[in-house]
Amino acid sequence: MRRSIAAEVARRPNDDRFDLRGERASLATMHGKERVIAPLLRRFLGLRVETVHGLDTDRFGTFTREVPRPGSQRDAARAKIAAAFAGNPGVRVAVASEGRFGPHPIVPFAPLGVEIVLLADRDTGIEILGQFVDLDAMWTHAIVTDIAAARIFAESIGFPVQGIIVSGCKDEGPCPESGLFKDVQDHADLERAVDNVIARCGAAVVETDMRAHCNPRRMKAIKRATVNLIREFGTRCPNCDRPGFVITERIPGAPCALCGTPTRLIRAEASACAGCGHRAKNSVGPPAADPSLCDACNP
């Protein structure tokens, strides 16, 4: 049975190097993410989470394409953390989240969302990453040429609880330079925005608003990524007690039960400590693989 989050973050006696209870944490957000992140970090890590007043996280990239995101998803989260430290220099800890969305690499026409929540402690130098992969992210769009089609799209996604972005259309794709409406609050706003863009472009792109405060599905995914961060924090190195002793490698090669040939089935998982370098390997799964998974038995 899996341990509770509280059990996983329980501290060892007389070891407070990584104890964050009572510490202040600066959260880099302008889209209401503190609603799901702060209560969890307060309850399980004892952090007093504060947002940075006036911090513009849109400068690190926007889902509406007018500001491209430089670097990777983790790079963007690190840039937000640096800004959170700069905006609140007295804190020990900073936290940031970043989302990434696109088509599923295997399932046709299915959306895929990846949420990360990153925590950095500048006293100890640790960096802990929580992640959640959403196989049913609220990420979709439609190209419309009249308000009736826009209303159908809006109904299909649960507008206005789920937000909508309306932008210009060029070459059957979004063109924010030709029109961009982010704060579409109700059906009257939607009609005005769509009519405005169609008058300019002949068509409008209507899409799900991926900003966290306008996307309830995404907010739930951020919450689950935060839970994962807390679990990772509670996974301590058996050698130095540093948080984040996580799986870094899954090793294939479980032998075929019929012929003994190594298969692609995972036989072990390896964990590593980013602090002292300690590594550990644990066997997982059955001792032998079903012959149906063996390339030698099934050429």
Give a topology summary.
Blueprint: H1 5-8, E1 24-28, H2 34-45, E2 48-51, H3 73-87, E3 93-103, E4 111-121, E5 127-134, E6 141-144, H4 147-157, E7 164-170, E8 173-181, H5 187-201, E9 204-208, H6 216-233, E10 246-252, E11 266-272, E12 279-283
Parallel strand pairs: 1-2, 1-3
Antiparallel strand pairs: 3-4, 4-5, 6-9, 7-8, 7-9, 10-11, 11-12
Helix pairs in contact: 2-6
In words, what does this structure look like?
The chain has helices at 5-8, 34-45, 73-87, 147-157, 187-201, 216-233; strands at 24-28, 48-51, 93-103, 111-121, 127-134, 141-144, 164-170, 173-181, 204-208, 246-252, 266-272, 279-283. With 299 residues, it is α+β, with helices and mostly antiparallel strands. Strand 7 and strand 8 form a beta hairpin. Helix 2 (34-45) runs parallel beside helix 6. The mean pLDDT is 93.
Structural descriptors:
299 residues; alpha+beta; Maf protein; Dna Ligase, domain 1; 5-stranded mixed β-sheet; 6 helices; 12 strands; 25% helix
In short:
This protein has 299 residues and is of the alpha+beta class.
CATH architecture of the largest domain: Alpha-Beta Complex
The ordered string of helix (H) and strand (E) elements is: HEHEHEEEEHEEHEHEEE
- Global geometry: flat
**Largest sheet properties:** 5 strands, mixed
* Domains, number: 3
- Tell me the structural class: alpha+beta
Instruction: Kindly report the CATH topology of the largest domain.
Output: Maf protein
- List the total number of helices: 6
Give helix % range.
25-40%
CATH domain class name of the largest domain: Alpha Beta
In what order do the strands lie side by side in the largest sheet? 2-1-3-4-5
Mean pLDDT comes to 93
In angstroms, what is the radius of gyration? Answer: 23 Å
Q: What is the beta-strand fraction?
A: 25-35%
Which residues sit in consecutive blocks of at least 5 with pLDDT less than 50? Answer: none
